[in-house]
Q: What sequence folds into this?
């Protein structure tokens, strides 16, 4: 009952075919896993999302854009920011118009920052065409201040610190959330 040479060749062929099939299956499986691990929502990679977050962190700033004020027949003003799509508002008088203009400018630029859109360079007021009765005024805003006012929802964060530091801080009745907020604010505002 010895092993026949023909059976050995069939086993080698079976093994070779099985090995090639397994290799390609593992390769395809690895690619599928790799795509799932490196892909977050909307098909963007983790690296793209991280870069967007880092870019947004440095975008928060103070801005000044020219606004075209158009007097209305009923009183008040319509305000348009020609450099920014969809950025317009109105006010009952000059004071109200300036407040509304600052608010809509901050809201629009905050949206640009949040969405990762490129923020356009403000036009020079001399290059903007005006109709009769219209005038230009620059309006300034601070998107960081806007974020503080309208996006102050608390978010839970987990952190890791050495046990001895935790014990010392708890003995001194230190509020961890307050310390972290103060430290982050001082880091951001540098």
A:
């Amino acid at each position: 009952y010895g092993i026949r040479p023909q059976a050995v060749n069939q086993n080698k062929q079976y093994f070779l075919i099985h090995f090639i099939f397994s290799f390609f299956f593992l390769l395809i499986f690895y690619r599928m896993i790799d795509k799932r691990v490196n892909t977050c929502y909307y098909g963007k990679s983790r690296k793209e999302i991280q870069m967007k977050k880092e870019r947004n962190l440095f975008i928060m700033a103070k801005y000044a854009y020219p606004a075209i004020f158009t007097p209305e027949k009923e009183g008040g003003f319509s305000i348009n920011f020609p450099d920014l799509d969809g950025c317009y508002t109105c006010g009952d008088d000059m004071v109200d118009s300036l407040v509304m203009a600052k608010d809509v400018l901050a809201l629009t630029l905050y949206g640009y920052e949040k969405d990762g859109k490129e923020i356009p360079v403000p036009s020079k007021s001399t290059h903007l065409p005006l109709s009769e009765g219209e005038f230009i005024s620059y309006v300034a805003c601070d998107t960081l201040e806007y974020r503080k006012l309208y996006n102050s929802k608390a978010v839970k964060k987990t952190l890791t610190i050495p046990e001895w530091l935790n014990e010392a801080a708890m003995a001194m009745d230190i509020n961890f959330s307050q310390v972290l907020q103060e430290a982050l604010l001082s880091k951001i505002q540098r």
The CA atoms of residues 59 and 113 lie 7 Å apart. The mean pLDDT is 80. Helices lie at 5-38, 46-59, 94-115, 143-150, 163-171, 176-188.
